[in-house]
Specification:
Number of strands: 0
Largest sheet: none
CATH architecture of the largest domain: Orthogonal Bundle
Keywords: DNA-binding, Transcription, Transcription regulation
CATH superfamily of the largest domain: Tetracycline Repressor, domain 2
Order of helices and strands: HHHHHHHHH
Protein name: TetR/AcrR family transcriptional regulator
InterPro entries: Homeodomain-like_sf (IPR009057), HTH-type_TetR-like_transc_reg (IPR050109), HTH_TetR (IPR001647), Tet_transcr_reg_TetR-rel_C_sf (IPR036271), TetR_C (IPR011075)
Number of domains: 2
Organism: Streptomyces mutomycini
Radius of gyration: 20 Å
Distance between the termini: 51 Å
CATH class of the largest domain: Mainly Alpha
CATH topology of the largest domain: Tetracycline Repressor, domain 2
């Protein structure tokens, strides 16, 4: 089972060098051609040191990606849930669609289908906490009356992230800001039910048609 590396026993300088080396090599060679030996040589650490801190290449890549992704995609709260979701999703799109993080995450998503330990680590260290944070932001919007009380918040998160992953995994062009705005608007409208519902395209936050 993949566990989080110990931050007590390892040198931060060596950790950073290892993560940076993994990302650089992934961009240069492609995820599948990167080896732990190559990461160790580029980082100036021993292969034994890497295996003492991480159980696999995938675990190294996951820590490198997750650290960057979480830092670049905070769930801000300006009081405007639509604006905040646009900010968040646009940042997520930028991270997963540009080197070095995009190639690394594409490799991780592919490898996790053949590595149960890595799959669990992705869910525990990245996906689970990000979904929880997204649901928490939507819940605050719900408390502020911006999201209906009966809305299915976990489903809303899947609707927001699903198109991002779809394009990333199938290597389709990433969403631009207008597409993200349309996505956020559509998801928020879909959460409105009953007497509060308005026909699509009639609400103030509907994207302009060009």
């Amino acid at each position: 089972m993949i566990t989080s590396p110990s931050s007590v026993r390892r040198s931060e300088r060596s950790r950073r060098a290892t993560l940076d080396a993994a990302l650089e090599l992934c961009t240069e060679k492609g995820y599948g051609r990167v080896t732990v030996e190559a990461i160790a040589a580029r980082a100036g650490v021993s292969k034994k040191t890497i295996y003492r801190w991480w159980p696999s290449k995938g675990a190294v890549m996951l820590e490198a990606f997750a650290e960057a992704f979480v830092g670049a995609t905070p769930f801000v709260d300006t009081g405007d849930i639509a604006a905040d979701l646009r900010t968040h999703i646009n940042a997520a799109v930028r991270v997963v669609s540009t080197p070095p993080y995009g190639p690394a995450y594409a490799g991780i998503l592919s490898e996790m289908h053949h590595d149960d330990d890595l799959a669990r680590a992705v869910l525990e260290q990245l996906v689970g906490p990000r979904v929880e944070a997204a649901v928490g932001r939507l819940r605050r919007a719900q408390e502020q009356g911006q999201v209906p009380a009966g809305a299915d918040l976990p489903l809303a998160v899947e609707m927001l992230y699903g198109p991002v992953y779809y394009r990333h995994v199938l290597r389709r062009p990433a969403q631009d800001e207008a597409t993200v705005a349309a996505l956020v608007s559509h998801v928020l409208r879909s959460l409105v039910t009953g007497d509060d519902a308005a026909p699509a395209g009639t609400r103030d936050d509907a994207p302009a048609q060009g």
